[in-house]
Amino acid sequence: MGSTSSEFLREAMAQQRIAALNDRDLVLCDFDGTVSAEDTGLLVARELRLERFFEIEERWRRGEISSRECLRDQWRTVDPSRADFRELIANLEVNPGFEELVALTGVRGARLVILSDGLDYYIRMTLERLGLERLEYRANHAVLHEHHVELQFPCPADACDFCGNCKTLWLFELRPGFERLIYLGDGISDGCASRYCDVVFAKDLLAGICRERGQEFVPFETLEDVVPVLRDGSVLRAR
Ligand SMILES: [Mg+2]
Ligand SMILES: [Zn+2]
Questions:
Q1: CATH of the domain at 220
Q2: Residues of the domain holding 120
Q3: pLDDT given for residue 239 in this prediction
């Protein structure tokens, strides 16, 4: 798997010249599946055996409900007082390379912001655990009630039909003053915002979306694949 991933990387780098990270860069990074090893919602649903959660996910995939309805209804099925829930959230697995990415953006003076259609609750817990609580993020707000989680969406309801937390709205709010936008993501909720970015690191569903619309991207497996490209830049190879 590792060698396949670096082969892809070499191929992508042969096509695309990427300058090394600098202080005129805005780096926008998805959380679930990109920073975290797994999608947190699906992990919680699987480990807590929340059948309802998956049923709601299926309804969303069939286009019967919006992202907002999906997220709101799914998290309502989660009982945050359960010890196994707290245990899971306290120990979310983070992909290798994340701390290096944060360190690199700090050293180079680039701005790194996590954009997530997930919950601020588990992002905050994870960043605190890693000693990265100063890192910026924009996510949906979770209110933990005794037996369910209530979601509050940060974007106005009429701003976007598609997202809970609309990453594209955040992109337009954050980008003034930056010369280059760099995007890292893996999912459908990254599809829209990444369209406006100069450099896209993509895997899984986002890679498929980029391929379909003919947007160049750098494939990656973990953030360990991303860090060297941003640290050194990639060189256009003659071949
Ligand atoms: Mg994701
Ligand atoms: Zn949106």
A1: 3.40.50.1000
A2: 2-38+93-145+153-232
A3: 37
